[in-house]
Structure formats: structure tokens, C-alpha cells
UniProtKB/TrEMBL annotation:
Pfam families named in the record: Cation_ATPase_N (PF00690), E1-E2_ATPase (PF00122), Hydrolase (PF00702)
Cellular location(s): Membrane
UniProt domain Cation-transporting P-type ATPase N-terminal: residue ranges: 18-90
GO biological process: proton export across plasma membrane
Catalysis performed (reactions): ATP + H2O + H(+)(in) = ADP + phosphate + 2 H(+)(out)
Domain of life from the UniProt record: Eukaryota
Family statement drawn from the similarity comment of this UniProt entry: Belongs to the cation transport ATPase (P-type) (TC 3.A.3) family. Type IIIA subfamily.
Protein name (Swiss-Prot/TrEMBL): Plasma membrane ATPase
Keywords for this protein: ATP-binding, Ion transport, Magnesium, Membrane, Metal-binding, Nucleotide-binding, Phosphoprotein, Transmembrane, Transmembrane helix, Transport
Membrane topology type: Multi-pass membrane protein
Classification via NCBIfam families: ATPase_P-type
Residue ranges of the TM segments: 66-89, 101-117, 244-270, 282-304, 609-631, 674-696, 752-773, 785-802
Species the sequence originates in: Triticum turgidum subsp. durum
Amino acid sequence: MASRQEGSLDAVLKEAVDLEHIPIDEVFENLRCSHEGLTSEQAQQRLQIFGPNKLEEKEESKFLKFLGFMWNPLSWVMEAAAIMAIALANGGGKPPDWQDFVGIITLLLINSTISFIEENNAGNAAAALMARLAPKAKVLRDGRWTEEEAAVLVPGDIISIKLGDIIPADARLLDGDPLKIDQSALTGESLPATKGLGDGVYSGSTVKQGEIEAVVIATGVHTFFGKAAHLVDSTNQVGHFQQVLTAIGNFCICSIAVGMFIEIIVMYPIQHRAYRPGIDNLLVLLIGGIPIAMPTVLSVTMAIGSHRLSQQGAITKRMTAIEEMAGMDVLCSDKTGTLTLNKLSVDKNLIEVFEKGVTQDQVILMAARASRIENQDAIDTAIVGMLGDPKEILNLAHNKSEIAQKVHTVIDKFAERGLRSLGVAYQDVPDGRKESPGSPWHFVALLPLFDPPRHDSAETIQRALNLGVNVKMITGDQLAIGKETGRRLGMGTNMYPSSALLGQNKDESIADLPVDDLIEKADGFAGVFPEHKYEIVKRLQARKHICGMTGDGVNDAPALKKADIGIAVADATDAARSASDIVLTEPGLSVIISAVLTSRAIFQRMKNYTIYAVSITIRIVLGFMLLALIWEFDFPPFMVLIIAILNDGTIMTISKDRVKPSPLPDSWKLAEIFTTGVVLGGYLAMMTVIFFWAAYKTNFFPRVFHVKSLEKTTQDDFKMLASAVYLQVSTISQALIFVTRSRSWSFVERPGFLLVFAFFVAQLIATLIAVYADWGFTSIKGIGWGWAGIVWLYNIVFYFPLDIIKFFIRYALSGKAWDLVIDQRIAFTRKKHFGKEERELKWAHAQRTLHGLQPPDAKLFPEKAAYNELSQMAEEAKRRAEIARLRELHTLKGHVESVVKLKGLDIGTIQQSYTV
């Protein structure tokens, strides 16, 4: 049967039939299908004929992929060093430097192998995660509608497409509502096209409006999109992360080039050094200065971080979105479903009762009975309840004239707070049948309806503000509803209707104010349309903000694409997911804030390593250049290879290190990285030079520690001196990672176990080599445990100033160095601003004491905390939120006191139990 079907579908397979334009009846005839769809067996057979509904992916050779890790500027320098070791080093009566050549190739292979394995694992994990996001299609199979992956669709399938879907295959439309299709990605049409019965739609188009059924006419490479795929410009844009890597790599290469140029100028024309020792010194700078592991460490760190984000409910579609999320300082969040539960509920405390003798609980019971349609019992039929529009129900009430004014007043009061009103009424039916005439209707109560905030939203918003992320509410609801939600969440009520800011008819009261300032300082926007979202993001980005945007609908796609970090919330449409950078699998704002913290931790690891890499380049180039030029000391290139291999093995664990996320939005600050690297590297280089001078030119160490002197110039002593220098450089270089990974004192912030373990293993190996090795091919000789102890003690003593230098650099670069000396800049403070922060803190404390609240948490106002660099915008938003909460408490207390006076209650008893 399969062969017979293949023959009958041969014309379709060879595209000999124009299924796009022939009448729809002929489409069914040529596809050998009907309106009832295909059976599973038929679909499986056609899948063998037409193939899966996806574009062909080129199978990349794993061997070529492995070699690709050796094809980058940093690897080119190492490869040049390898060629130099066997070509240029072949002189001075000595054979080629095969041991250095083998060592360099080994180092390249180690880095490439680790990169290949980790990226392959990360790729497999990413493929598994993306499979969860694979486009789905609603298809009619075996007479039942089921949801299948779009990849298994075949010509002849009947599918259902609706608003927000990405059309999974080329199809012809059947019965249903006309569709509005966005084909801009395929045809360039800027306006949506209207499609109806018999019209063709293309794979990859987005449904903007409507719902309809369709018959699939082409899949995979046979679709319009598949045929045009080879025409699509697939040029890879160089991302920001790659630009940063290139900049750091270029800095290191230029530093090495400058060092080598100076060595060549001094060694040969001035010092008249022999050819081969000069080449060895150049190899030391080439091999030791290149951070060959940098691409591997950073890519592995991001891959592992992406996996951790997925475990928290945030799937990363674009890996570099991690660094952008770490720098995000504004988050435009949807209200419905993200900040709120998207479930209308009744606020029991605000129920307004109009019938005497009826309690709020009884009102809720009546409303519940009125909501039941099925399985009503005798009580339900004896007392008929009604629930609905208050104005309509009021018209039926027998006492309408008496309560109408009060009802309308309450409705208006609810509306001012953004609450919807629901009326409840009842009537007695003596016969017990709903069809029987009953007594007059009694208007019982008004229920306030509201979409309540999520239980964790208020706390999460406070966390976001403390992290320097300003959360702005984006809602299509009315302004009153947005303000009420903002009040309940404690995020402030400084909100505007977006049409008043961005529409043609702006609000007169704010027409003269700069719109960009209002958008920047607003707590949220109401009545938002999709084009407003795009404009809000655009204006925030123009103010140099890193902007995140959440969305779930097809109309959110432009704003998600425009934002620095587009976030598709849980249950988002395919179009929103396609346009986003991160897809959430869990609802709520807390997932996003957790992802921000994780992203900052990932970014912190990458930043720590780049500072370390630059520092090591400077210390190797400057340190060994000075030794070679001042004392004509020739350090063996092979030992630099040993240092590099041990360093790489240790530094790979940085991807899983325990770090403290930055308390503020973070980003690549190349000036800070280069400055810190140059200063720390210069300090370490000078420590090596001083150690060499003390060991080689003085009798200090033998006199104090009673060890063999190294100040003689015999060849053996040079070998032992090389071992001592090797151990000193190896230990202090690797220990530097503990300084760059910490924001405070390096011995206070506990590192990850793997990093500590790798460090001690590597340094144990380095110490054993320095103590016992007697390698003639590389000119080193064991120095014994005495000298090894001296080296360790020397490095420990000179390790501690590294933290102080780090602090000095940070504060010097931040422009706040003088704040350490003068906490309050009294001389530069205007009279009206002097002590403003203290006055605000005292006012807030007084208000909280007045209302019986706990003292404010120290984290709420972190001006005096360790990190007092919170962005001004987030700080202002935090204060507005706090003031809004206190004002609400002040109003609430006034209401309580009014009720107490009317009821004649004891105010003392009320105050004792008045807690929030």
C-alpha cells in the first residue's frame, strides 16, 4: 500500500501540481485526503515519503569542529610559537627545540579537547531544552484533534491555526474566520494580509487575528520558506561578547608584541646576546603571555550558566543574553499573569452590604449559589440568586429608589481604586420552582472584583529595587487598576496612561514636560498598546538603559525583539517565544529576578577570569623581560609551558566557582579590566624581580634561613635559580585568581571546593617539580624543601597587599576615592540638600513608629551599606514605593480612627492589635 500511495503522491513530491492555486477540491484530490484528516498510519507513511517538516541541517564534522577550536587569534600566536620553536630556534649549534614544540601542541590539544567536550555537552543540553520549545501544531489525526510537534506534519494533514500561532507549513485555508497574516519575514509586506477560504499561507508567517482550519500542501524543504532559505543572508553579526573577547585578546597580543620588540632591540644590537638564548627569551613571552584558555573558560562558563538558568525556569535561546541580563537596570513587566494571578477574586473586606441582617459570608454564599447552574438543590430553587452588572440588577430591586444613590457612590469608589463591581440580589420563591413567580428582588450587596497580586510579587519587586533593577508595570488595563495594583505591590503609583505620553493627544498637564524623563521616572504605564511598548523600550534605550521586556502575545513580538532582553513568559504564544531571548517555563516575576541573580553570578565569573588573564599576561611579559634585560637571565621556555598547563587545569574550575553576584547591574568595563590587570600584573612582576635580585645578588635568604646560596654564577646555580623563579611565578600567579574572584578580602569570601582543590593539586605538582626535578633538557635543578619553603613564605607575605591594591583601583576608577576620606562631602553640599538622606530616614522611621510597624530593614535604605552605588533611578523608585506605602498606612489609620469614633470603640485596644 505504501508503494501505491507513493506513486499516487509522486506528482506532489516532484511539485508537478500547483497546489497553491488550483481549486481547493482538486487539492484534496491530489493529496489523497479529506476534511476528516489522515490516519496515524497514513501520516507515518507520508513522513517517509516527504521527510520531516524542517529544513535540512548540515551535519558538521566533529573532527573539523575540533580543529576549529585551534583557529582563532590566540591559537594563531601559540601556533606561531610552535613553528618558531622548531624553525627559528634551530641555530647556535643546537638542534630544534622539540620539547617546546611538543609542549605547545599539547597545550593547544588540551584546550581544544576541553572546549570540544564542554561545548558538545552544552549543545546536547541546549538541544534537549529547545525541544521543549519546539513549535506545536493542532492536527486532525484518526478523527481526533491532537497537539503534535510541527516536525511530523505531512501534506494532507488538516491543521487548526489561531491568533499567535506561527504557521507550521504551507497550507490552503478551509472554513473559519478570516485570518490576518503577518508575512513580513517572508515577503517584506509591512501590513498584515487578510486571508480567507481557499487562500494559501506560508510556513513561518504569524497569525495576527482569527482562527481557521487548513490543509497542509507542503512541508520542510518544499515550502516557500524552505526554497528561499538558501537566499537568506546568513551572515553572522559579531556580537558584543565576541567584541569583548577580541578586545581583550588584542590587548594581550599587543602587550606581548611590545615586550618582544623591546627584547629584540636590547638583546641583539645593545647586549649582543647569542642567537639561540634570545629566541628562547622571545618564546617565554609568546607562550606565557597568551591567555590561550580564555575562549574555553568563558564559553564553558556561559554554557554551564545557561543550564543552571534552565533549572530555574528560564531557558536561554541566545547565550549572550546572559551578560545582557546581568547588566539589565530596567524591567518592563506585564501586569496580568506576571505581577498578578490573572484570576479575578473578591476582596471580602471591601464587600458593601445593603441588606440588614446579612453578613459578608452570607453574601459570598449567595453569589456562589447564583453562579451554580447544574445540580441545584432544594434550597437553591427556593431562593433564587442573581449575580451580574450592578446597574442591571439594581433596576430589578424593589427598593431601587432608596439605595440607588448609595450603590452608585460605592461603584464610583470602587472604580477609583480600579475595582470592578458585581451586584448580588435574591428573591424568595414559595413554590420551590424557578419558573414560579417569586417575591420582589432584594439588592443585597456589591462585590469588589480585582486581579490580586501574586503572593511573592511585592517581595520580588523590593528585591529587584535592591538589586538596582527598576520594575515598570506595563498593562492594557485602565489607569486606576494599574495604580491599585501598584499600591498593593508597594511599587508606587507614579503611573501614566501611555496614550497621554506617546499618543497624538497628550495630556495637557504633562504636555510641557519632557516625555523621556516621565518614562524614565514612571512606575508604570496603563492603557498600553503594542506600539507603545516598542516606543517605551526605544526611549529607555536612548537613555542608555539596558532594558528587559516581558510579553506573551503576538503583538508583543516587536517590543521583545527591540528590547535588550526579550522575555517570553510562561504560556506565551509561538510568535512571542520566537522573538524572545529567554523563555520562562514558570509563571511570576520571581523567576526573572532569580535569573538576574544567576546571570550576574555567571557574568562575575567571566569578569573575574578576564582580569586574571590580563594580569598574568602583564606579569609574564614585564617580569621575564626585565629579568632577561637587566641580568641577562634566560628562563627555560618549557617551564613556562608547565606553568600554563597547570594554570589552565586550575582555571577551568572557575566556571563552577562560588561567587557573590554583583549588587548592581554589571557590564563589561574594559578600562577597569585593563587597568586592574596592568596594576596587579605589574605588582606581581616587580615581586618576581625583587625575589630574583634577593636570591641572585644578595646573601639575605642564606643568612636568615640557612639555605644554599644562589648568588654564584655557575651553570648549576642558574639551573637552581630557574627552579626557584619557576615556583615563585607559578604559586603567586595561580593564587591571584582568589583576589580577582572576590569583591572584598580574598580570604573572607569562600571559593568553590573545586577551585581550591585544583589549586592545591597544581601547586603540589609545581612544588615537587621545583624540589626534585633535574631536567637537563630544560636547564632546571631541584632546589630542595628549604628554598621551596622560602618561596612559599615570600609569596604569602606579598599576597596580602594584592587585596589592598584591588580596593584602591576600584575606588580610584569609580570616582569615589575621596568618599573614603570624607563620608559626607560637606564643602560641596548645598544648604537645602545637606543631611537630606538622614532627614528622609528619620521621617520614614517616625512614620513607621507612629503606625506601630517594625523598624525599617537595613537593606531597604542601603546608602550606608558596603555597596552604596545604587543607580539613582532605582533609588528614587525605591523611595517612592516606601513613601507610597507609608501614605497608604496614614490614610488607613485615618479611616480606622473615624470608624472608632463612630462606633464608640476603645482606641487603645485597636492600637495594641494594629499591625501590618
